[in-house]
Amino acid sequence: METIAFIWQNLASIARMTVEHIEIVGVGVGFAILTGVPIGIAISTNERAAKIVLYIASIIVTIPSVALFGFMIPVLSIIGQGIGFLPTVIALFFYSQLPIVRNTYAAITNIDPALREAARGMGMKTGERLRKVEIPIALPIIMAGVRMAVVINVGIAAIAAYIGAGGLGKLISRGISQSDPRQLIAGALLISILAIAADFGLGWLQWLLTPKGLRGPSWLARLAQRLGTPTDLGLRSQQVQ
Fold it and tell me: What is the pTM of this model?
């Protein structure tokens, strides 16, 4: 109750921190999508290049976030951007590459070769085939990589508060420095809620962008199936009687 009261009393500042957090993650992952998807498509035709790129991306993910921030401070200080927004966005950009590139690569390489041959038979060029056939089919898996990157980086972005980037991590850092469990719990709780909300939102966007022929039922339809439609419930009640 104390944590809820603290959130309510500081709603305006918490809303501002939430917007900062979303902005940091959105920019970092956004740039990662612009580079990761084309890289994943490019390496799908070259197995050796794919191994090298995925290996490098895997190594980057293993670097602790604190160490990566610490490395960028002296490097970016040359241009006067050693702390704050820029190093945080760059770090999230690097951490987003692996799930996006790997999922894009896996999605493109697992497309049925017969579909490619059919597209070639229809006279489609490489770019047209990618745009009209391969990417729409691969989109659900690509979006799954984007969702993974967003959820991971919502948590990583909390550390950015220690280099002056803002966000909900401020609550956690203040809670630790001031020995205030209200701020610590509020920060952790709000970051978790933000990650869950982002995952659900991107899941809905994934379903919306997927071609109708490839869509599964929405989560609402699946929930209705589990609960049973009114007609099904009526039939069941008659059977019981």
Answer: 0.81
